[in-house]
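Budget justification note: compute hours in this period were largely spent on complex prediction jobs such as the one shown. Inputs:
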Amino acid sequence: MNNKIMKLAINEAKKAYKKGEVPVGAVIAKNNKVVALAHNEVEKKKNCTLHAEIIAITKASKKVKNWRLNDCEMYVTLEPCAMCAAAIELSRISKIYFLIKKDKNIKINDKKYIYVEDNDFNKKILNLIQTFFKSKR
Amino acid sequence: MNNKIMKLAINEAKKAYKKGEVPVGAVIAKNNKVVALAHNEVEKKKNCTLHAEIIAITKASKKVKNWRLNDCEMYVTLEPCAMCAAAIELSRISKIYFLIKKDKNIKINDKKYIYVEDNDFNKKILNLIQTFFKSKR
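Corresponding output:
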């Protein structure tokens, strides 16, 4: 886990928050070099498929000119939903670091998924998500 | 089930086949009017997320200017994969007509999914898929 890259993912989540999107950020890296940065754009682009992870996969694929993202790692602030988890499988991304677990969908049996316990990171993102959903009530 | 619309989905699958893509076509319709036509573009666009269903959702959302596709129906030549099934859930599409079942992933418990038994349609698509995969061996 590269702290600097996870910080970039958190920064992407903040960008989403400021735009009124569910605050999720994702970064794809290869050999600790950033390949793609993305955040949730469902509302802005009016497209339910544009979760941070999907946009990151699209950007990374464009950059490496290949739909296969073997040897790439994803840093994402929230555990991926079913759509994104399936897209990650298709993309062949080899490792996924995430900060917040979702009850329904924990990838506990999938060794590719690594829950990052970093008090500062976890708190920041949890706070961002909770503030977002409170503001929507 | 509207036969004319399913024929358009089959036609999209043929377009994919001609381009060397896995031959899958999808159409989104509302009140029996076509909203979006799409076929698999994974290889052309080098993006593993660009299955026919995802592209159809993107196009339909643009057209109706809303990520919510309530009251829309999807016609798709192959039973959706896990990524597409989850995207369909998110999109709120209300009904999915499909021609070919996949063993692993049959949505038998989901009343939204309707397996279309039409000998002519089923044969055409099965033949297209089998020919495609034979040619790749």
